């Protein structure tokens, strides 16, 4: 079977590529519409599918809640731990340098200032940190130079070196976005690296850091310890817990609920090494990054791409290791309810566009002959599960059990037709226990906001009553939007998420 697929991919590279682009949309639309056409063509099979899917959802909900609770306790312990004490146990710890590439477009200088301030406040000396501020030329010379002057004035002499790169516009073959900008920033850093004899590739890491992310003060120290201590340092990617809490109390309730749920899910995922893939802000050794040729310039999503690029380039040796510390990010925000709603929708649609990487991942999976078969199979299936069910979950859980008896009167008079809504409801009601755990973890993990009114604090847990609406507008619709665009060949243009 694999031999046949390999031959087809090699013989028809363009057609196979297009077929795989259609696959996510085909799968998601088929499953979303199944409760409609299945109600007439195969109602019994549909009923069992819905029950099995609801059980699957219950399993996912409960395990995620358990892992989120476990992750929360580990994060709290790691926040208090003295990582520098462990770091200083290595004789060569002062030779380790951390390059942090920070792609930015038109974000305010104050946002970048806040990010660099967090880097300068690390428990590891900031003299071992090398921020690379990756500007886009298309943002405009005046904007870029104003921000550069601000940052140089505030942070002159704070770091080992503060580097600025300027990604040219309209480079042939490139796709505008974070990945191509980060790749240019890395090239600029490499030129600077040649001037510093004490910057040794074997003793350096390189990170992709979203420009609004604030790393916990212990983050770089914990990273240094893990880098020095690991025998697999050149085959590891490190990932912290991305939490969208920087401005969580400034955005309207529906968007607040979405970001609170997303933050807890990110925490829980750290406990799942079988599902953990780097996202948003992550680190790998400079040696590994150099080995695979840095970020690709012809894609929009760069995080999953760099994982599978390194994974298949090393014959399946790369793994993602969690750093149980918070990386606080901004939620999408703009002036007014509707603009914040739109920005959140567009951000999620860009995340869902990660399904465009499925073409690359599936092709690599089929053509690869060296990575351990079951390891690569499980990893790829987990990614396809997440990507292809992204828009499906809401429709099956919310409407799936209601439609068959409603659309097919004959089926509604059968035993299973009558009991399907009750059985599905009972299964999904059990998942509310996991929701309670998620609410508690969120309340514990969120930084305390001074001046927040008492009624906002009291009503905070009750905001989750908006979940059905939030799931529709910030999961199902942007997900199917992205899948449909990919299926029809209407490729998504990179849209920077406005964060104020």
Distinct helical segment count: 21
| Biggest sheet statistics | 8 strands, mixed
Query: What global shape is seen?
Result: globular
- Which regions have little confidence, pLDDT < 50, spanning 5+ residues? none
Residue share in helix: 55-70%
Beta-strand share of residues: 5-15%
Order of strands, main sheet, comes to 3-2-1-4-7-6-8-5
Order of helices and strands: HHHHEHEHEHEEHEHEHHEHHHHHHHHHH
This entry's quaternary arrangement is single chain
Radius of gyration: 24 Å
Quickly give the structural class.
Answer: alpha/beta
- How many beta-strand elements? 8
How would you characterize the overall build of this protein?
- The chain is of the alpha/beta class and 500 residues long.
- It contains 21 helices and 8 strands.
- It has helices spanning 2-11, 13-41, 43-80, 83-87, 109-120, 141-155, 178-193, 219-229, 253-269, 286-292, 303-313, 337-352, 357-367, 373-389, 392-399, 403-407, 409-412, 415-430, 432-445, 454-459, 467-488, and strands spanning 97-103, 129-136, 163-167, 204-208, 214-215, 236-243, 282-285, 319-328.
- An 8-stranded mixed beta sheet has the order 3-2-1-4-7-6-8-5.
- The N and C termini lie far apart (51 Å).
